[in-house]
Design goal:
Blueprint: H1 3-27, E1 37-46, E2 54-64, E3 71-73, E4 80-83, E5 87-92, E6 95-99, E7 105-106, E8 112-113, E9 119-120, E10 137-139, E11 144-147, E12 150-154, E13 157-160, E14 167-170, E15 173-175, E16 179-181, E17 186-189, E18 191-193, H2 199-234
Antiparallel strand pairs: 1-2, 3-18, 4-17, 5-6, 5-9, 5-13, 6-15, 7-8, 10-11, 11-12, 13-16, 14-15
Helix pairs in contact: 1-2
């Protein structure tokens, strides 16, 4: 394969990855707390000694969109949404992680957990515990959890030290490497945050990527025909 073929192939590979990212975004239009992702393309230039330099596209880095999504009022005691920056800190089998999906429920042990059983952590990294038999549980905007009027925990909001290090782990869970507390955001009790995927923009992007991929495929087919023609001519 010549330089033109390698260049087109790397571009096609990156477009295929972007199509997968866009498809995943569209599939999660209605997923609570979902954060859309985008693909970052970089250019790799190989300097040649005599021939012109060779440029290749490299699309293998995903960027998480941290923009605020709308919130829906549910009235649930343990449904929580974040207004502003930051994530809830949870404990998963793979270690501490971040999420914006705030649909929590008390476990049999009284700890607030996600639907997958991951424990919600407070600002000190300890599980948030709800005393058994508590008649009324309230969550203040600063994350303070009170049971029957008595403070029992304070939910901490966290974020990645480097926003570009945020990586989609599974579902609505993100790995972040080093994390730090986030100030200025508020916790809303009885609300859940929607997905921040914009349907029209995402579908339009899918069409653009598909057209770009088809154009690249036509180029590769034409290049293949050209190479076949050269081989047939030289073989006579």
């Amino acid at each position: 394969m010549d330089a033109a073929g390698y260049t087109a192939l790397t571009r096609q590979s990156g477009l295929m990855r972007e199509m997968q990212v866009v498809a995943n975004n569209i599939a999660n239009l209605s997923t609570t707390g979902f954060r859309r992702e985008g693909m970052i393309f970089s250019e790799y230039v190989d300097r040649m000694d005599e021939d012109p330099s060779l440029s290749m596209a490299n699309g293998n880095t995903r960027l998480v969109d941290l923009s605020q999504a709308g919130v829906n009022q549910t009235g649930g005691t343990f449904d929580l949404a974040i207004q502003g920056d930051g994530f809830f800190l949870i404990e998963t089998p793979n270690g501490q992680a971040l999420t914006r999906a705030g649909a929590f429920t008390p476990s049999a042990a009284g700890e607030l957990v996600t639907p997958d059983g991951n424990r919600l952590l407070d600002q000190g990294g300890a599980p948030v515990f709800i005393p058994p038999g508590a008649a009324k549980v309230a969550v203040a905007e600063d994350g303070t959890v009170s049971a029957d009027g008595q403070p029992v925990a304070r939910i901490g909001l966290w974020g990645p030290t480097d926003p570009t290090a945020l990586r989609h782990q599974t579902g609505t869970i993100f790995a972040a490497g080093e994390m730090q507390p986030v100030e200025g955001a508020t916790v809303l009790q009885g609300f859940l945050e929607e997905s921040n995927v914009e349907p029209v923009s995402e579908i339009a992007r899918m069409i653009e990527v598909q057209r770009a991929y088809e154009m690249g495929q036509k180029f590769m087919d034409a290049e293949d025909q050209r190479m076949r023609g050269v081989i047939q001519t030289l073989g006579r």
